[in-house]
Structures are given as structure tokens and as C-alpha cells.
Design goal:
cell inner membrane; eight-stranded mixed β-sheet; single chain; 920 residues; alpha/beta; nucleotide-binding; HAD-like_sf; Magnesium-transporting ATPase, P-type 1; 23 strands
């Protein structure tokens, strides 16, 4: 044997297939190289339509693919050419664009305008201070969001969706060449199935689809069995569409109407298929449409709308008060330029420029905290919705119960143990290729069957009729001997009974009489009452006259018996439900399972059942009728996916913030409809895609921790807004009084700006503050009216002590003329800054600060540092630069008394306010 000749022959074989040139000469321009232009939907429509009408063999040849897919090397080469399978809008923002987004909020734009005005009026110190505030606010937000996005991307990578892809084994072709030229017999393993991240798909890949899968790219079907696809995301059609390999109509001009094409962004409802990838990423129909709408702003969420309302409340207040201060000082002092600069400084002082940074920081901190508790946050705003959630709707299986179902019994129709029923169930689960749910896994893993694995080897699979949620059953057709076929059907008992006309009783086939039906209902009811989930098993013999079967063949069956499953509740469920109830979250069960099984599980986990509603009843109700009962009912059983979605929407319309937790195909519509969709990393693709949060462990205890984290996040955001609003209102009120009676400005514009800058810096640690336990007991929401009322009530309280300081400086320390205004301004500068900083600790809690509730060490440290700086500035050599002067030491006992009285009055006001209006 000449080994060199063998190597050269194999090398020639590879070169002949273009692998050494990375497939640059492959005839795939039709699908891969079309430029993305404004008219791509029309161009793409033509390309897809041509692919749909093309013969399968010709199409695969054009794509340089095969029925068993591409090789790894071929796929890598194509991916290098066309890029990842991602749509344009999924790419992260570049850092300059991200920085611009962090800057362009109303407060920063307003401050920039004020800084520009200060610059052109030659007030450089004011321009520098205002500019510093803008830079600090923007950079803090930029850094926080960048860190948050990096962490989120790492977490999302843990739950990225995958597709089942066929990989061709090149060794088969090499073996054929070796046999042909050298008479050498090689034994390749053949094509293999692999799970590949969706973004790695390339044109020419052959993918396998089953119920629950997302369509990962634009595809042409190669084979299909009862394939139903939901195209609602693309076409708005509410009902799934059946897809076929050979479409009945190819004359349509719309690719979406072609029955042998599937499109990225849709999902498989039921059935199974294999398909070849035509286009990926931005070259898909979905990608082309997405590129057109990426410039369109998204509708603000409830959280964003709440922040916007509060922001504009503060801005409107500033726009009203600033002109009042300007004109009052202009008329009383006569210096309009000084009055303008002073009004400008007041406007800056009233601007909550740190609000965007505080919001971003608190949300980012919440996301990091939840990640430590095994919760992946796909959308930051969802954290606040978590805290606002007051109703949690959840599926039963895998949430209340363990994610492991055990096959407990296999019985005949009278409830007696029957091994033959188990064999039928095993064959059905073994040969079905659709979505293997937990029941199938339990059947296949059943201990008694480990000795009987040879059962399946004695049969040949003929066909199958996949599961769907309308029939709630599935069938396989097998043949043990070629003289007949056996159709074995299993599913929900009532659905199985509906297609049975006979039953097997004591080894004989008897008619399904009303008396026998009553006995069947009694037997299954007693099993359900024990907490067992009962599945019916039926079968019938058929002549071996055909190889393809349909739904019509599921008729005239013989009821064989039942298989009963036990899904025990988790140990953590009962305490978790109690904790959620204690924190004001009502839990409702939305399940497609039997009402008797559901009720028993609820009793075991301590969930009080205040009414039960079945899907059949929901179907007959109008939305108005459902709205009347939906809040009162705890358990909804035997629901379809549409019923779940409808219940969630009705609860939302009633004013609730609704969370929904699910992991199945039937949960996807409800996940989308909920204010906060929650799924798990083991969920089907479409459920994970629809969710806002993904749990890495399926436990309600994690949900309770998430709720608390969401409420902590909201509490800290609200603290800043309340502190800023009340403090700013009080300062302006004091300025108005002082401006009306003093012969000089109570504080220079520079003093106001420096004071405001120091106060803002002290707020940076608020996202890391502690939250009182009572604040976590009930859901929290934005209430702009309450914030406005809080501002009006608490703002003037600080003015009382500002006026006391005015009197102290005027009468006690003799700062009662323009010649001594610097001393007056120094006294108010310190008192104003310290009272503003003190209000942080007073308003952050309803309790007595420092004694009953202490701030976190970061916040405590920042407050002490800023207070020290505020005292050092006028008492040091820096005083001259800031146009201040040192105060006599006798000033500080008076200051301590004023601050103590201020703290006492604020505490009394808090007690009164909380009794009358509540403390949010």
C-alpha cells in the first residue's frame, strides 16, 4: 500500500469539495450575499419564494448541503463568511452611543443649558460647579450600566437557546472513496445530532424541530409530521398554522403564506420536522423587518412611566419657582444680574440631576443581588415590577411540586395492577419523537422496565401522531409482526375515553356502556383523590395497509387501563407560599391538570383554596363576568394556554401587577401577557424567550427573595426622590422668605451650587442602603401624587429652622447689614448643608433614625464625610475662595440645638403623616 498515494487521493477529494478555499466558490449567493438595503423585504420575498418552489434535491445542491447536514468544517467556513445568526438590534451599543444615552436625560440637558448661561455671563465658578455635577451624574450612570450590562451578558449566556442540528460525518465519504479506490473498509459512525447555540447556525444547516422549539432562522421543510407553527409574532394570526413539505399553494406573492417555509421569530406548537436553513441573522424576514423598526422608540414600561411622572413633577415645580425667586430678588435688591445668577443657582438646586444615576445604580445592584440568588434578570426594569407584584400566577407541576414525576401505578380499568398496561405505555413513550414531557421520562425510567428493555426491540415503529394541546393525547403506530399494526394512544383520561368505543375487562373486549363509563369515572376519581395524576392508555389493531396515519385514525379505540403518576410537593413550597402571603403577594394556581389532584397538592402545601374554576367555565364567561370572580378564585384547573393568558390579562386590567411563572409551551402566551414573566433555565425555548426573569432553580423560595430584592430597590429609589423633593422645596421656601426681608442675598449663587454638589455626592451610597422590614411587607408602586404631597408637607419644616438660623445670625451674631453678609451666608451654608444631609437619615425610615433604624455603613460614611467638608470649607483657608468666612465657635452649640430640634419635629411630623396618609 502506497501511503503517500492514499494521502494525495484524500487531499484531492477534499480539494474537489472546495474545503481548502473555505467554500468561497459555493453557489449560495442567492441566500447569503444579498446586501441589506431598504428594499430587502421585496428582494428577500423573491428569494424565499424561489426556495419554497425549488425541488428539495436542487435546493440542497445550491446550498451545498445534504439531508444529514453540513460538516463542522463547512459550517465554520460559512459562519466566517456570513457572521453570527443575530439580528441587528441585538448588538450592544458602542461606548460613545452608550455615553450619549446616559447623558441625554431632561435634568442633564437642563443643567448643561444653565452651565452655558453661566459661562456666557462670565460666572466661571458656577459653570465649573454645574459642569462637574453633569459629569459626575453621567459618568456614574455610564459605569454602573456598563458593569450591569457586562454581568447580564454573562448571565444570559448561561441560558442561551439552542437548536438541534444534524452534522454530516465526512468519514462516510472518505470511507466510500477508500473502498472505491483501495478496497479498504472503514466504519464511520454516521451523521450525528448536536445541540448548537442558535447564533451559530448557518445557511445549509439541517435542524430538527419539535414542540416548544423556536424557529431559529428562515427554514425550508425537508420532512414534517403534523407540524403546527404559531406565526402570531409575524402575521398576527391567533391560531397555529399547519406546515407541509409539499405546499398546496405556491402561487402566493407573500412568503408568509407558503406552507413549506418557517420563519425566525415563530415557534412550534406541536408536531415534528426537519428543515434546512435558508437565511440567518439580519438576512431573515424577521431580521429585515427588525432593522426597519429599530429606530422606533419602545413604549415605556409602567416603571419608566412612573419615573417620568415624578421627574416632570419636579421639573414643573422648578419652572414655577425659579422665575418667582428671580423677580423677587430683582425687585427687592435692584441688581437684576445678581438676581438672575441667583435664580439660575436655585434652578440648579431644584434639579434632581442624580435621579437617573440613582435609578440605574439601584436596579443594577438589584440585578447583581438576584444573580447571587440564582435569578437571571433579562430586563433591569423587571426588578421593580418584581417588588410591585401583588399577584403571582404559577403552574403547579414543577413549581409547587418536585420537578420529578414518579410512575406510581399501572392498572386496568378497574384499578387492579396490570403489567400489560405498562408495556403499552412504554412503547408509546419510547417511540414518540415529539416533546418528551416528564410523564414520558417517568415511564421510561420506571424501575420495573429496566428488565424489559427488549420490549421495544421486538417492535418496528410505523408512524406517530404527535401531541397537541387541543387533543391532549398522542399516538404511535408500531408493528411486532408484519401481519398487523398496533395504534397505541395515551393522554388525558377524558380525551382518551372520548375516542374509545370498547374497553378491555378481565381479558375480554367489551362495549363501553354508560354503566362501565360511570365505573371508570369512579376509579379515576379515587386515584385523583389520592393525589395521583392519571393518564389513560388505549389501543387498537389495524391492517398493515398504510405507513402514514392521521388524527382520523384515533377512533374506535379499546381502553386498556391507566398509568398513575405521583408528583410530590417540594419541601420548600409551604414556607415559600407562607412568606409570599406574608409579603402581600396572592398566589393563584393556573394549571391544565385535574382539579382533584391540584386541590390535594394545595392542601398539602398549605395553600388555602378559596374557590376553583375550570377551563370549561372560563370558556363560557365574558371578560366582565371573569373579572368579577378572578380575584376571589385561587385555583384554575384544566386550562388551555389561551385561558391562562386571558386570566392574566383580566387580573392586569383590574389594576394588579401580575407575575406569571411557567416553563412549558402552553405557558408562553401568559408569560408575554404578565407584567413580569418568570421562567426557568430548563424551560422550552419559547418560554425562556418570553420571560423577563429566568430562575436557575425552580423554587418559590427564590421568588420570595426576588420580591424582597425588588422592594428594596424601589425603596432606595423612593428615598432619594423624597429627600430631594422635600429638601429642595424647603430651600426655595426659605430663599423666598429671606429674599423678601434681607437687604442682601441670603446665599451667593456659588454657595448654592457648591452646597447642592456636596449634597448630591452624599446620595451616591443610597442604592446600598438598608431597608426597614415593614417596608417589605406589601407591594410598592410609583405614586407621583403622594410624592407631591410629601414634598409640600415636609419641605416647609426645614424652612422653620432656616428662619431660626436667619434670626440667630441677624440678632445673636450681628450679621444684619451688607457689610456682614459673608458671615450670615457662612452660617446658613453650614446649617443648610447639614440639615439637608440630616434629612437623608430622617426620611429614609419611618422609625427613629440611628436608634431604631440605622443606615448602611456606605451611606453613613458618605454623610459624615460631606458634613465634615461642609464645616471645613468656611472654617479653613478655602473660605476666601468660596467667599465665606470662619464662624465663631459659639455658633456650633446653637447649630447643634437647631439640628436636634429639626430632627425631633421631623419625627413628630412623620408619625402624624404616616397615620393619616400611610408611609410608602
Amino acid at each position: 500500500m502506497n501511503l503517500n498515494l492514499l494521502k494525495e487521493t484524500f487531499a484531492g477529494f477534499i480539494r474537489a469539495r472546495g474545503m481548502d478555499r473555505h467554500f468561497r466558490r459555493l453557489g449560495m449567493d442567492m441566500f447569503r450575499s444579498a446586501p441589506v438595503t431598504k428594499d430587502i423585504p421585496q428582494t428577500l420575498a423573491q428569494q424565499l419564494s424561489e426556495a419554497a418552489r425549488c425541488d428539495t434535491a436542487d435546493l440542497l445542491q445550491r446550498l451545498k448541503s445534504r439531508h444529514d447536514g453540513l460538516t463542522e468544517a463547512e459550517a465554520d467556513a460559512i459562519r466566517a463568511e456570513v457572521g453570527p445568526n443575530e439580528v441587528e438590534h441585538e448588538k450592544p451599543l458602542s461606548w460613545p452611543v452608550h455615553l450619549w444615552h446616559c447623558y441625554k436625560n431632561p435634568f442633564n440637558l437642563l443643567l448643561t443649558l444653565l452651565a452655558a448661561v453661566s459661562f456666557y455671563t462670565e460666572d466661571m465658578k458656577a459653570a465649573i460647579v454645574i459642569g462637574t455635577m453633569v459629569v459626575i451624574s453621567t459618568l456614574l450612570r455610564f459605569v454602573q450600566e456598563a458593569r450591569s450590562n457586562t454581568a447580564a451578558d454573562k448571565l444570559k449566556a448561561m441560558v442561551s437557546n439552542t437548536a438541534t442540528v444534524m452534522r454530516h460525518d465526512l468519514a462516510e465519504e472518505l470511507a466510500a472513496e477508500a473502498q472505491r479506490y483501495f478496497d479498504i473498509k472503514l466504519h464511520p459512525k454516521g451523521a450525528k445530532r448536536i445541540e448548537l447555540p442558535i447564533k451559530k447556525l448557518v445557511p445549509g444547516d439541517v435542524v430538527l424541530l419539535s414542540a416548544g422549539d423556536m424557529i431559529p432562522a428562515d427554514l425550508r421543510l425537508l420532512s414534517a409530521k403534523d407540524l403546527f407553527v404559531s406565526q402570531a409574532a409575524m402575521t398576527g394570526e391567533s391560531l397555529p398554522v399547519e406546515k407541509f413539505v409539499h405546499p398546496a399553494n405556491t402561487d402566493t406573492s407573500s412568503p408568509l403564506e407558503l406552507e413549506n417555509l418557517c420563519f425566525m421569530g415563530t415557534n412550534v406548537v406541536s408536531g415534528s420536522a426537519s428543515a434546512v436553513v435558508l437565511t440567518t441573522g439580519k438576512r431573515t424576514y424577521f431580521g429585515a423587518l427588525a432593522e426597519r423598526v429599530t429606530a422606533t422608540d419602545r413604549t415605556p414600561t409602567a416603571f419608566q412611566a412612573g419615573v417620568n411622572k415624578v421627574s416632570w413633577l419636579l421639573i414643573r415645580f422648578m419652572l414655577v419657582m425659579t422665575p418667582v425667586v428671580f423677580f423677587l430678588n430683582g425687585f427687592t435688591k435692584g441688581d437684576w444680574v445678581e438676581a438672575f445668577l441667583f435664580g439660575l443657582s436655585v434652578a440648579v438646586g431644584l434639579t434632581p440631576e442624580m435621579l437617573p444615576m440613582i435609578v440605574t445604580s439601584t436596579l443594577a445592584k438589584g440585578a447583581v443581588a438576584l444573580s447571587r440568588k440564582k435569578v437571571i434578570v433579562k430586563r433591569l426594569d423587571a426588578i421593580q415590577n418584581f417588588g410591585a407584584m401583588d399577584v403571582l400566577c404559577t403552574d403547579k407541576t414543577g413549581t409547587l411540586t418536585q420537578d420529578k414525576i414518579f410512575l406510581e401505578r399501572h392498572t386496568d380499568i378497574r384499578g387492579e395492577l396490570d403489567d400489560e398496561v405498562l408495556q403499552y405505555a412504554y412503547l408509546n413513550s419510547y417511540y414518540q419523537t415529539g416533546l418528551k414531557n416528564l410523564l414520558d421520562v417517568a415511564v421510561l425510567e420506571h424501575a420495573e422496565l429496566q428488565r424489559e428493555m427488549s420490549i421495544a426491540s421486538a417492535y418496528r415503529k410505523v408512524d406517530e401522531i404527535p401531541f397537541d394541546f387541543q387533543r391532549r393525547r398522542m399516538s404511535v403506530v408500531v408493528s411486532e409482526r408484519e401481519d398487523h399494526h398496533e395504534l397505541i394512544c395515551k393522554g388525558a383520561v377524558e380525551e382518551i375515553v372520548s375516542v374509545c368505543t370498547r374497553a378491555r375487562l378481565n381479558g375480554e373486549i367489551v362495549p363501553l356502556t354508560p354503566e362501565l363509563l360511570a365505573e371508570i369515572r369512579e376509579t379515576t376519581g379515587s386515584l385523583n383523590a389520592e393525589g395521583l395524576r392519571v393518564v389513560g392508555v388505549a389501543a387498537k389493531d389495524l391492517p398493515p395497509t398504510k405507513e402514514t396515519y392521521s388524527l382520523a385514525d384515533e377512533s374506535d379505540l379499546v381502553l386498556i387501563g391507566y398509568i398513575a403518576f405521583l408528583d410530590p410537593p417540594k419541601e420548600s413550597t409551604a414556607p415559600a407560599l407562607a412568606a409570599l402571603r406574608e409579603h402581600g403577594v396572592a398566589v393563584k394556581i393556573l394549571t391544565g391538570d385535574n382539579e382533584l389532584v391540584t386541590a390535594k397538592i394545595c392542601r398539602e402545601v398549605g395553600l388555602e383554596v378559596d374557590g376553583m374554576l375550570l377551563g370549561s367555565h372560563v370558556e363560557k364567561m365574558t371578560d366582565e363576568e371573569l373579572a368579577v370572580v378572578v380575584e376571589k378564585v385561587t385555583v384554575f384547573a384544566k386550562l388551555s394556554p389561551t385561558h391562562k393568558e386571558r386570566i392574566v390579562r383580566v387580573l392586569h386590567d383590574k389594576g394588579h401587577v401580575v407575575g406569571f411563572m411557567g416553563d412549558g409551551i402552553n405557558d408562553a402566551p401568559a408569560l408575554r401577557a404578565a407584567d413580569i414573566g418568570i421562567s426557568v433555565d430548563t424551560a422550552v425555548d419559547i418560554a425562556k424567550e418570553a420571560a423577563d426573569l429566568i430562575l436557575l432553580e425552580k423554587s418559590l423560595m427564590v421568588l420570595e427573595e426576588g420580591v424582597l430584592e425588588g422592594r428594596k430597590t424601589f425603596a432606595n429609589m423612593l428615598k432619594y426622590i423624597k429627600m430631594t423633593a422635600s429638601s429642595n422645596f424647603g430651600n426655595v421656601f426659605s430663599v423666598l422668605i429671606a429674599s423678601a426681608f434681607l437687604p442682601f442675598l441670603p446665599m451667593l449663587p456659588l454657595h448654592l451650587l457648591v452646597q447642592n454638589l456636596l449634597y448630591d455626592v452624599s446620595q451616591i451610597a443610597i442604592p446600598f442602603d438598608n431597608v426597614d422590614k415593614e417596608f417589605l411587607k406589601k407591594p410598592q408602586r410609583w405614586d407621583a401624587a403622594d410624592i407631591g404631597r410629601f414634598m409640600v408637607f415636609f419641605g416647609p419644616v426645614s424652612s422653620i429652622f432656616d428662619i431660626t438660623t436667619f434670626a440667630l445670625m441677624w440678632y445673636i451674631f450681628g450679621a444684619n447689614s451688607p457689610d456682614h453678609q459673608t458671615l450670615f451666608q457662612s452660617g446658613w451654608f453650614i446649617e443648610g448643608l447639614l440639615s439637608q444631609t440630616l434629612i437623608v437619615h430622617m426620611i429614609r425610615t419611618r422609625r427613629i433614625p440611628f436608634l431604631q433604624s440605622r443606615a448602611s455603613w456606605p451611606l453613613m460614611g458618605m454623610t459624615m464625610i460631606i458634613m465634615a467638608i461642609g464645616i471645613i470649607i468656611p472654617m479653613s483657608e478655602l473660605a476666601h475662595y468660596f467667599k465665606l468666612e470662619a464662624l465663631p465657635l459659639s455658633y456650633f452649640p446653637w447649630l447643634a440645638g437647631i439640628l436636634l430640634a429639626y430632627a425631633v419635629l421631623i419625627q413628630l411630623m412623620k408619625n402624624w403623616y404616616s397615620k393619616r396618609y400611610g408611609w410608602q
